[in-house]
């Protein structure tokens, strides 16, 4: 494998493994050996499904605004905010009026995200 295969662009819509998570919520996935990145795009007012998984997850809001639902709390987030979600904590996002784009980082990689498809996987 060429080292060029290890370089990506966050703004290239055809880069990464595409997955539709919910209505108005899509992601492009980049998987490594010990970590996985997911660039999630949420349409205005779109919301993911409340779900959980054993992998630790970090997120950073790249664009837009959103409400991070984590555990039993709803926390407004703005561009530049980032957070950690421990394994098995229920969570989702609800985009604001301009939509949102989030970079999620998983460790270890989520097995269900290593293939194209739809849905969040574990619930």
TrEMBL record:
Gene3D superfamilies: Jelly Rolls
Taxonomic superkingdom: Bacteria
Domain Cupin type-2: 39-106
Location of the region described as Disordered in the Swiss-Prot/TrEMBL record: 78-123
Protein name per its UniProtKB record: Cupin domain-containing protein
């Amino acid at each position: 494998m060429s080292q060029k295969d290890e370089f990506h662009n966050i703004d290239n819509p055809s880069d990464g493994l595409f997955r539709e998570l919910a209505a108005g919520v899509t992601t492009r996935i980049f998987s490594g050996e010990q970590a996985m990145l997911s660039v999630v795009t949420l349409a205005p007012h779109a919301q993911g499904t409340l779900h959980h998984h054993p992998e630790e997850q970090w997120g950073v809001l790249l664009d837009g605004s959103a409400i991070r639902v984590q555990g039993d709390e709803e926390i407004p987030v703005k561009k530049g905010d980032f957070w950690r979600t421990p394994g098995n904590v229920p969570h989702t996002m609800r985009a604001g009026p301009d939509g949102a784009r989030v970079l999620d980082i998983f460790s270890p990689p989520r097995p269900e995200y290593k293939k194209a498809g739809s849905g969040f996987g574990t619930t």
